[in-house]
Every structure is written in structure tokens, then in C-alpha cells.
Amino acid sequence: MEVGSIDERIDLEKIILERLYGSYSKIWKAKMSKFQLFDSVTLAVEIPLTEGGIAPPGVPGAIVEVFKGGEAFLVELFGGWVKAEVGGDFIPTSQDDPDAFMETLGVETVYPHQLKSANSACEIMAEVRAGNNC
What we know:
By secondary structure, the chain is α+β, with helices and mostly antiparallel strands.
């Protein structure tokens, strides 16, 4: 059986775990425990950017996709605070500017050993929804 996409591989892994152990949920959760979807992270090491350049350690990012049960992640990496000019160019600004946003440096495949946790998605949501425990 040939499995092509990441989703197909993940589905196959779930089926195998379910057949071996009767349930994949505990094992699957354990594999995902270090980082999860939408976690806020920083780079632990420098990584090359697909479109050129290097992202240095400490660059902030957010996990936007999880591959193979947490073996790799698609991470949106952010640069400094910018705002758009009328002509469409970005100019540096402070995060206090109401038009400010963090510029995207790239969206890269990153492995767990290349990441440090900044805030889990659960912690971020707990701040939004007071009383929600992670």
C-alpha cells in the first residue's frame, strides 16, 4: 500500500495504533505532548529559509500544521513589527501602532529539536477564557 500525503500517513499510523493497542488516543496524545497546533514557539537554532536567508535562534513563530504526529511542524516565523504604506511597502513600526503586525519571514518545516516552547495554545486560550485549565 503506497501512502503519499502527510494526512494519509497520519491516518495509517492511527489505524495501526488502534489495531495494536485497541485505542490510539493515549499514545497519540503522548506523541503530541511536546508541541501542538497553534503553540507559540521560538527557534532554538538557526534554520535556512526556503526563500533565502537564515532565521536566527530566538525568532518567534506559531505552529500552523503538525506532521506525522509531531515528528515535524509547519511553523510561520515572524520578523519585526511593521505596517503597510499606501503603496503596499512595509515600514518598521512599534507594536503599539494600531496598524502594526508582525512581518512573516517564512513558513518552514521545523523539527522538535529546533524549537523552544514560548506559550502553548491552551495557555493562550486560558488567558482569553478565564478559568479554563490546561
